[in-house]
Automatic annotation (TrEMBL):
<feature type="domain" description="ABC transporter">
    <location>
        <begin position="5"/>
        <end position="263"/>
    </location>
</feature>
<dbReference type="InterPro" id="IPR003593">
    <property type="entry name" value="AAA+_ATPase"/>
</dbReference>
<dbReference type="Pfam" id="PF00005">
    <property type="entry name" value="ABC_tran"/>
</dbReference>
<keyword id="KW-0997">Cell inner membrane</keyword>
<dbReference type="InterPro" id="IPR013563">
    <property type="entry name" value="Oligopep_ABC_C"/>
</dbReference>
<dbReference type="InterPro" id="IPR050388">
    <property type="entry name" value="ABC_Ni/Peptide_Import"/>
</dbReference>
<dbReference type="InterPro" id="IPR003439">
    <property type="entry name" value="ABC_transporter-like_ATP-bd"/>
</dbReference>
<dbReference type="Pfam" id="PF08352">
    <property type="entry name" value="oligo_HPY"/>
</dbReference>
<dbReference type="InterPro" id="IPR017871">
    <property type="entry name" value="ABC_transporter-like_CS"/>
</dbReference>
<protein>
    <submittedName>
        <fullName>ABC transporter ATP-binding protein</fullName>
    </submittedName>
</protein>
<keyword id="KW-0813">Transport</keyword>
<keyword id="KW-0067">ATP-binding</keyword>
<keyword id="KW-0547">Nucleotide-binding</keyword>
<dbReference type="GO" id="GO:0005524">
    <property type="term" value="F:ATP binding"/>
</dbReference>
<keyword id="KW-1278">Translocase</keyword>
<keyword id="KW-0472">Membrane</keyword>
<comment type="similarity">
    <text>Belongs to the ABC transporter superfamily.</text>
</comment>
Length: 344
């Protein structure tokens, strides 16, 4: 299938007084039309910064310092490198909201308490589509119905604070979908919601994706959500990608020790209960003090001393579309141990 988004070796760094924070440091992924890639990892791993980088929404002192973000606006179109566009450019502003839509964790925070749902709609839609106020309103009503909001006409007059969190998130999704985006980026969109509402929203997104063929990048720390919605999974740790592959393979045969640790702590997979990412032995190191070698070596039960704490682990490919960044699978690295010893 044609890819909608291809991120190549993305690096987003923050220059702080205390040093350089490599918030995203070499992320590559691609999302075909109609498919969902889940980006998963503990908080601070760089998932949200990855999303914001794609959208050109990284605030200073952060900056995309390297990489490509190839985005295909429409099927068959030539990909555009978003990383090469100025984040304030008209072109990128048009793509954002028009061709790439976004939904964030706190719907309340994205809606103004001063405006009704209808006013939000008219505002958002008219920015991007050439519609009259009435047409924008009608589109709003039909989309509210589409996302399962009862009494849509009546809800157009409601203020956000008169709606539940789940209802607000539906409103946000309706607004996001108004322009028929090729890509939806959702950053923990269901984290603040109760389990039942979460499940409904996930079903809704899957349904809408089926209908429209939009690609989705879904950021979450919740492996239950991943199991439900992902086609592909990208596991991140300290700004780097440690493993990626098709969801079934990741769940049934995780290669990377970090992925394994994450999965081992889900006691009730498949029973409908969700569990959050557990705390794994030790602490995530501070991003300013990223350990040398493998970033996970300070917490890894399989770490090989003298190797993992010294050398960047190689990216090893399994089959056609799986990768893990760990020395354990690199036989050459162990053989290399011998070669690396000085011979003269
Ligand atoms: Fe563990 Fe070493 Fe693999 Fe890193 S490279 S995950 S420390 S075994
Ligand atoms: Mg986040």
């Amino acid at each position: 299938r044609e890819t909608v988004l291809t991120v190549e070796d993305l690096r987003t760094h923050f220059a702080t007084d205390d040093g350089q924070v490599r918030a995203v440091d070499g992320v590559s992924l691609s999302i075909p039309r109609g498919k969902t890639v889940c980006v998963v990892g503990e908080s601070g791993c760089g998932k949200s910064v990855t999303a914001r980088s794609i959208l050109g929404l990284v605030d200073p002192p952060g900056r995309v310092v390297d990489g490509h973000i190839w985005f295909r606006v429409a099927p068959g179109a030539e990909p555009v490198d978003l990383a090469a566009l100025d984040s304030r450019s008209e072109r990128l502003r048009r793509i954002r909201g028009n061709d790439i839509a976004m939904v964030f964790q706190e719907p309340m925070a994205s809606l103004s308490p001063m405006y009704t749902v209808g006013q939000h709609f008219v505002e958002a839609v008219r920015l991007h589509l050439d519609l009259s106020k009435d047409e924008a309103r009608d589109l709003g009503i039909s989309l509210l119905r589409r996302v399962g909001i009862p009494n849509a006409e009546h809800r157009m007059e409601a203020y956000p604070w008169q709606l539940s969190g789940g209802m607000c998130q539906r409103v946000m999704i309706a607004i996001a979908l108004a322009c028929g985006p090729a890509l939806l980026i959702a950053d923990e969109p269901t984290t603040a919601l109760d389990v039942t509402t979460q499940a409904r929203i996930l079903d809704l997104l899957a349904e809408l994706q089926e209908e429209t063929g939009m690609a989705m990048m879904f950021i979450t720390h919740d492996l239950g959500v991943v199991a439900e919605i992902a086609d592909e999974v990208v596991v991140m740790y300290l700004g780097t990608m440690v493993e990626q592959g098709p969801v079934d393979e990741i769940f049934h045969d995780p290669k990377h020790p970090y992925t394994r640790a994450l999965l081992e702590s889900i006691p009730t997979m498949g029973s409908g209960r969700r569990s959050r990412l557990p705390s794994i032995r030790g602490q995530v190191p501070h991003p300013l003090n990223r350990p040398p070698g493998c970033p996970f070596h300070t917490r890894c039960d399989s770490a090989v001393r003298g190797v993992c704490d010294v050398e960047d682990p190689p990216t090893v490919t399994f089959g056609r579309d799986r990768r893990a960044r760990c020395v354990l699978y690199d036989t050459a690295a162990f053989a290399g141990q011998v070669r690396r010893t000085p011979t003269t």
